[in-house]
From TrEMBL, chain A:
Enzyme class: transferase
Reaction it catalyzes: S-ubiquitinyl-[E2 ubiquitin-conjugating enzyme]-L-cysteine + [acceptor protein]-L-lysine = [E2 ubiquitin-conjugating enzyme]-L-cysteine + N(6)-ubiquitinyl-[acceptor protein]-L-lysine
Name the record gives this protein: RING-type E3 ubiquitin transferase
CDD domains per the UniProt record, alphabetical: RING-H2_synoviolin (cd16479)
Compartments (UniProt record): Endoplasmic reticulum membrane
Membrane topology: Multi-pass membrane protein
UniProt biased composition (Polar residues): 574-584
Highest taxon, organism lineage: Eukaryota
GO cellular component: endoplasmic reticulum membrane
Record-annotated membrane-spanning stretches: 42-59, 101-118, 130-155, 176-195, 215-237
Automatic annotation (TrEMBL), chain B:
Entry keyword Aminoacyl-tRNA synthetase: no
SMART domains, sorted: UBCc
Family: Belongs to the ubiquitin-conjugating enzyme family.
Name listed for the protein in its UniProt record: Ubiquitin-conjugating enzyme E2 G2
Lineage: Eukaryota, Metazoa, Ecdysozoa, Arthropoda, Hexapoda
Catalytic residues of the enzyme: 89
Subunit structure: Interacts with AUP1 (via C-terminus); the interaction recruits UBE2G2 to lipid droplets. Interacts with ubiquitin ligases AMFR/gp78 and RNF139/TRC8; recruitment to lipid droplets by AUP1 facilitates interaction of UBE2G2 with AMFR and RNF139, leading to sterol-induced ubiquitination of 3-hydroxy-3-methylglutaryl coenzyme A reductase and its subsequent proteasomal degradation.
GO biological process: ERAD pathway
EC identifiers of the protein: 2.3.2.23
One Pfam family recorded for the sequence: UQ_con
Role of this protein: Accepts ubiquitin from the E1 complex and catalyzes its covalent attachment to other proteins. In vitro catalyzes 'Lys-48'-linked polyubiquitination. Involved in endoplasmic reticulum-associated degradation (ERAD). Required for sterol-induced ubiquitination of 3-hydroxy-3-methylglutaryl coenzyme A reductase and its subsequent proteasomal degradation.
Length: 623, 167
């Protein structure tokens, strides 16, 4: 097909020249005749392009060999775009339109095509399993030739612009400058790929180098395009023909910038948040990085979810996605869970450090050495695990109660239940009860996540690192969180059963609201009474006592005012006796959990003891 | 040493050749370009595609396995999850960021843990159990839902066609 076309073209050209020479018989008149006739000129132009095309084929045979299908496809696609842009450029410079001008644009397009091909070839290096020395010679010489040509043409354009002022040469100068940056980035990529091929181990930093190359070259290109648009707009008109490539350049630059930022973040996260996998961990796993399917010998990282990958593989994945490749755990969110209670933990540790030989922040403890004593063990005679829990918790929870007083209660109906005062029960807990019940006694509202922006460097350091100390700190933190969750869970079940009961009692709100109508309250086995009992344990104020039987606060307040102070006094013993009867009457409540039952019994005992004097008092006042 | 994508593809090719899953054959079209594969998928037994052998082409990106490959059947296909031009639309082939159909869970999406083998196995199960909520081929989805006999007839015709038998 191509052969046919070029021979037809050749025949046409010979016919035109032959005809002209036959008519004019002499060289000069024949040339004049041809240039004067549009048809002949057309034929000559076509012949010129055919020659350029054939020349291009020859050059690509020399430097590139056979083009791959993908390369050819891409070349065609980009060529058509470039051609339309060239036609657009013609419109700007329609005044200087002449054969020389067309020739210059042809040369530009011709060179551009080879730049694209060189780029494709170098990209192909990454995909190709084997490349001979011949490939390297070809690519090397192609890049050199193109670079030199670009440079020469750029200098030429620069000089002619200096001499003759702004002409179409400015466009060429700019285009060749862009092409030079293309050659530069291609050459850098080539060097990087070639260097990687020479080594036997994967070159880990190549991706980073490539990223920064993209960034720098992208930046230069963006600056060049912007300059060009501004200059062109000042001298001629808006250069429509560069808008498309400029748009793509801007987009690529933005992407490169984003990649660099993400990559930096990923590297920083990996260096600070995730420990290197130890040889034992590697031995325990199957020792294959699931991302690249290769053995992990060194530079592996362990994520919070326990999955291990190559550092470099992880980095390139984290550039796109901040999740664990295996289980899709969001790795950016996980460490914040770890650090939720971090400040408290560190405070605690610091507080306990006074009686402890090893400060929590001491990172010098060798891994695998003697296990250091838990830094928070307050009671030396307790088992270590208990020491961690019970000894570590009271200050922690005391703090939390402090916070909790400021919290809005999620269940306004149960407002009376809220906030037991800190000093009463927590102090009792480790001694009176099995340690794991200790924190349940006060039943605090579940703690809110702490403000994560407030830790000091020291607190952070206590949690980071791979030393035993740090891991112990982290484990303790997790245990604390676990305990808090347990307490929140038990509270929720209490709330639930309370809410169920409240619906029942709400059916007779009038009787419940009426504090003096004690008889109805006596008969009703209501959980609001339990709520009251819990509150009674901590709050002895008569206001709260009356409030308990009624489901809502506003009503309570009214009743308090209506009843007056003496009615309150009447109420206290009544509700207390009511509360005593609950464990017997409330079968399903007890089913809820034996722990709760245990708790309640203790609390009730406590109440009874405390109410005796009150009742006695009352009796005296009544008398 | 070549690029990591190439090494991983070579490793997967080796794995697939040494221990091929049932009903699946896959490998690079030519040994000097490991980024374009051809796969042959046998229609799962007990379905309307039983007995067919469906050729498909997989094109891998340079950053494989960070980005998923593209898969396209090179024979005629009529299936709710295969576009008319042969492109396969299953969630495992979609990068987690984009959701062309707007319903996929990110847990089903591409991740570097996936592999050619897993993709092809997913395609086999897709052939067996089309997801008629994804509208890659709406006609096929409607026919599969409402006129199953007709759908089965078309599928059987396609099977005969892939085997080079007269319809």
């Amino acid at each position: 097909m191509q052969l046919l076309l070029s021979s037809v073209c050749m025949a046409l050209t010979s016919a035109v020249i032959g005809f002209a020479y036959y008519q004019k018989q002499q060289f000069y008149p024949a040339v004049v005749y041809i240039t004067k006739s549009n048809a002949s000129m057309g034929v000559i132009y076509i012949q010129f392009f055919v020659i350029v095309f054939m020349f291009g084929k020859l050059i690509s045979k020399i430097f590139l060999g056979t083009l791959r299908a993908a390369e050819f496809e891409h070349l065609l696609e980009r060529f058509w775009y470039a051609l339309t842009e060239t036609c657009l450029a013609f419109t700007v410079f329609r005044d200087d339109f002449n054969p020389r001008f067309v020739a210059l644009f042809t040369v530009l397009l011709f060179l551009k095509s080879f730049h694209w091909l060189a780029e494709e070839r170098v990209d192909f290096m990454e995909r190709s399993p084997v490349l001979g020395w011949f490939f390297h010679i070809r690519v090397g010489s192609l890049l050199t030739v193109l670079g030199v040509l670009d440079y020469v043409l750029l200098i030429h354009a620069y000089n002619s612009t200096l001499v003759r002022g702004p002409t179409v040469q400015m466009v060429f100068g700019f285009e060749y400058a862009i092409l030079l940056t293309v050659i530069a980035s291609t050459a850098i990529k080539y060097v990087l790929h070639a260097a990687e091929m020479r080594t036997d181990t994967p070159w880990e930093n190549k991706a980073v180098f490539l990223l920064y190359t993209e960034l720098v070259i992208g930046f230069i290109k963006v600056v060049l395009y912007l300059l060009f648009v501004v200059i062109m707009a000042k001298i001629y008109a808006l250069p429509m023909f560069v808008f498309r490539p400029m748009f793509f350049t801007l987009r690529n630059f933005r992407k490169a910038l984003n990649d660099v930022i993400m990559s930096r973040r990923a590297i920083r996260n990996m260096n600070t948040l995730y420990p290197d996998a130890t040889p034992e961990e590697l031995r325990q796993s199957d020792n294959i990085c699931i991302i690249c399917r290769e053995d992990m010998v060194n530079h592996s990282k362990k994520l919070p979810c326990g999955h291990i990958f190559h550092t470099t593989c992880l980095r390139s994945w984290f550039q796109r996605q901040q999740t664990c490749p295996t289980c899709r755990l969001n790795i950016l969110r996980t460490p914040t869970v770890n650090s939720t209670a971090m400040p408290r933990q560190a405070d605690e540790a610091a507080a306990a450090a006074a009686g402890n030989p090893i400060p929590a922040a001491a990172g010098a403890q060798p891994a695998g050495g003697v296990p250091p004593p838990a830094p928070v063990a307050v009671d030396g005679n307790q088992a270590r695990a208990n020491g961690n829990l019970a000894g570590g918790l009271p200050p922690n929870f005391a703090d939390l109660f402090g916070d909790a007083t400021g919290l809005p209660n999620g269940l306004p109906n149960l407002a009376g239940l809220q906030i037991p005062p800190p000093p009463v029960m927590p102090m009792l807990s480790p001694f009176m009860m099995p340690p794991h019940f200790g924190y349940l006694t006060p039943l605090p509202p579940p703690p809110m996540p702490q403000d994560l922006t407030n830790f000091t460097d020291e607190e952070l350091r206590a949690m980071e690192g791979h030393q035993r100390d740090h891991i112990v700190q982290r484990l303790k933190l997790l245990q604390n969180i676990n305990l808090m969750l347990d307490s929140a869970g038990i509270m929720m079940s209490q709330y639930q059963s309370l809410a169920a009961r409240l619906q029942l009692t709400a059916a007779t709100p009038a009787s419940a609201a009426n504090g003096s109508a004690g008889s109805s309250v006596y008969d009703m086995p209501s959980t609001s009474a339990t709520a009251m009992a819990q509150m009674e344990a901590h709050q002895v104020t008569p206001t709260a006592a009356t409030s308990a039987p009624s489901p809502t606060m506003p009503i309570e307040k009214v009743t308090i005012e209506d009843l007056g102070a003496d009615a309150d006094e009447d109420d206290i013993p009544s509700t207390a006796t009511e509360a005593v009867s609950i464990p017997n009457s409330d079968a399903d409540f007890e089913e809820n959990s034996s722990e709760l039952g245990e708790l309640r019994k203790r609390r009730l005992k406590f109440l009874e003891e405390r109410n005796k004097p009150v009742a006695a008092n009352e009796r005296t006042t009544a008398e | 040493m070549a690029g990591s994508a190439l090494r991983r593809l070579m490793a997967e090719y080796k794995q697939l050749t040494l221990d091929p899953p049932e009903g699946i054959v896959a490998g690079p079209i030519s040994e000097d370009n490991f980024f374009e594969w051809e796969a042959l998928i046998a229609g799962p037994e007990g379905t309307c595609f039983e007995g067919g052998v469906f050729p498909a082409r997989l094109v891998f990106p340079t950053d494989y396995p960070l980005s998923p490959p593209k898969m396209k059947f090179t024979c005629d296909m009529f299936h709710p999850n295969i576009f008319a031009d042969g492109r396969v639309c299953i969630s495992i082939l979609h990068a987690p960021g984009d959701d062309p159909m707007g319903y996929e869970l990110s847990a089903e999406r591409w991740s570097p843990v996936q592999s050619v083998e897993k993709i092809l196995l997913s395609v086999v199960s897709m052939l067996a159990e089309p997801n008629d909520e994804s509208g890659a081929n709406v006609d096929a989805a409607i026919m599969w839902r409402e006129q199953r006999d007709e759908f089965n007839a078309i599928a059987r015709r396609l099977v005969r066609k892939t085997l080079g038998l007269p319809p």
